[in-house]
């Protein structure tokens, strides 16, 4: 009886440690205690709206990953140098972020979802580590297969998004 209880206790402790480790790796830093950035309230609003319309149904890691892409674009030198510029950018094939297509302003209807993604945006702007996407500057859902994806290196699949960065794709055959 004792050995069975000891095994259950060890298994419970191991599961708790694993869960705590996973949770800590995705935890959001307190924006007030993080290093200050040059972001404005308008930049926060643009990032939070982009996360709301592009990733509100994603798990926390998926929302953080989309925020990474937007910040990676801003910092890359190949896209606009502001978050609002990145999310509102047009292009040859249309807009860069699908919620901005057609110039329609969409209403935020789920306030609790917006508050969640706003916290992700605040943490990202406060300097949260960008370690989920491998430097990705592009993403799409598996429901589409954009032609540009063949020109880039796939870095991650998180939630319902596939992430890419510039560079020749290194496709690996799967048998």
Our estimate of the beta-strand percent is: 5-15%
Q: Percent helix among the residues?
A: 40-55%
Please mark out the parts with pLDDT under 50 across 5 or more consecutive residues, or reply none: 1-26, 28-36
What's the alpha carbon Rg, rounded to whole Å?
A: 19 Å
Structural class: alpha+beta
Shape: globular
Topology pattern, helix = H, strand = E: HHHHEEHEEE
Q: Averaging pLDDT over every residue, what do you get?
A: 78
- Our measurement of the CA-to-CA distance between the termini, rounded to an integer number of angstroms, reads 47 Å
| Strand order within the widest beta sheet | 3-5-4
Q: Could you give a short account of the major beta sheet?
A: 3 strands, antiparallel
- Number of distinct helices: 5
Quantity of strands, as a count: 5
Keywords: Hydrolase, Signal
Domain Cell wall hydrolase SleB: 57-164
GO molecular function: hydrolase activity
InterPro entries: Cell_wall_hydrolase_SleB (IPR011105), SleB_dom1 (IPR042047)
Task: Give your account of this protein's structure.
The protein has helices at residues 2-26, 41-55, 60-76, 83-88, 111-125; strands at 90-91, 94-95, 138-140, 152-158, 161-166. The chain is of the alpha+beta class and 175 residues long. It has a domain at 31-133. The strands form two sheets. The chain has a three-stranded antiparallel β-sheet, covered by helices on one side. It has a two-stranded antiparallel ribbon with strand order 1-2. A hairpin with a 2-residue loop joins strand 1 and strand 2. Helix 2 (41-55) packs across helix 3 (60-76) and helix 2 (41-55) packs across helix 5.
